[in-house]
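Journal club prep, notes for RB
We'll compare a predicted complex against what the paper describes. Inputs for the iron/sulfur cluster case:
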Amino acid sequence: MELYVHIPFCVRKCDYCDFLSFPGFGCGADEKHRSLSCHYTDALCTELKGIMTVLKDEGIGCDTCFIGGGTPSVLDLSETEKLLKVISEGIAPKEFTVECNPGTLNIDKLKMYKDYGVNRLSLGLQSADNGILKALGRIHTFEQFRESYRLAESVGFDDINVDLISSVPGQNMANWKDTLEKVTELSPKHISAYSLILEGGTPLYKRYEEDPDSLKLPDEDEEREIYHYTKEYLEKQDYYRYEISNYAKKGFECRHNIGYWTGEEYIGAGLGAASYLSYKNALKLKAAAVKTDDENSMLRIKNTDDMEFYTASPADCAVTEEVLGKIEQMSEYCILGLRMTKGISVTGFSSRYGTDIMAKYKDIIEKYIQMGLLEKDGDFIRFTERGRDVSNTVLCEFL
Ligand code: SF4
């Protein structure tokens, strides 16, 4: 089991972001925002206490915890302490990550994270080019990021992820190369490098609708070039790509995300947080949301994204969004598993579903192996390098 905790607050809203997060928080927030942040933390702790009681009573362990957002590091010291106390009294995750943004960290907060067992930080940088950061509406410069990074190291954090986004307005190979060089100089243990997706409703999308050329987005060929360069460059620096967009030094892969890609159960707490639970565990952890009697199903359950409703009833605000039968579970297992460089384990699949993957998806797998897009290596089926470039077409066939 994994635990995800959502903090839906940010200092300001980045121009490309459609995550569930609200601006106006952090130091400098007005009274209204400070009060909401305090009220929300209390509600979140109420929900978490309920979850912790069930986990303890049922002997369910949590291997990982990820506090994400939003920007969890905008919570002030007393809110941070309340939250970490509830979590650490209930579980002792092997990997405990907090997502942070430069400009929202200080030494006291970092020490508090450490004291409560946080052993991994994920820092949002996105680009080392200050012009690009400004165009994306980020609140920090590269220099401020580097300062936060050094501060985290000085407190003893050595497992740090740096988030980057490629294919953003104004980006070219030269400034992307510079970003990779500046980041790898710091030697973080993990780097996530996603491509920008223009999400409807964001300020960036509106600018794109009004005048697509004004954004100067890289075209598809440039995107591929950036993608291949990233892999090549990072591999030379001893990072290996273990998932389409994620790179790590050996032994520092993100266990929490690997859990998502390998079909682990997770419980989400906080506004809009999603859970993926077996019927049996859903009955224990999100009983009111369970609307099926299929004992073999997996349930995708989501907390409300209505702040007023959440803060009024944090322990009873979830609904089942999807019930996955065995066929859907198998299909999802393949689609998510193939995101990983090592691919899907044949024996893992059969022990989980009691079915041979080579028989279940025989036609698809054989077709793409013959085309050189998939390969079988020992127990694993995975994409070839060429297959990765057209992965969406292949994945659609598992639906
Ligand atoms: S900091 Fe992250 S969550 Fe907050 S607005 Fe920017 S991209 Fe969105």
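Talking point for the session: The radius of gyration is 21 Å.
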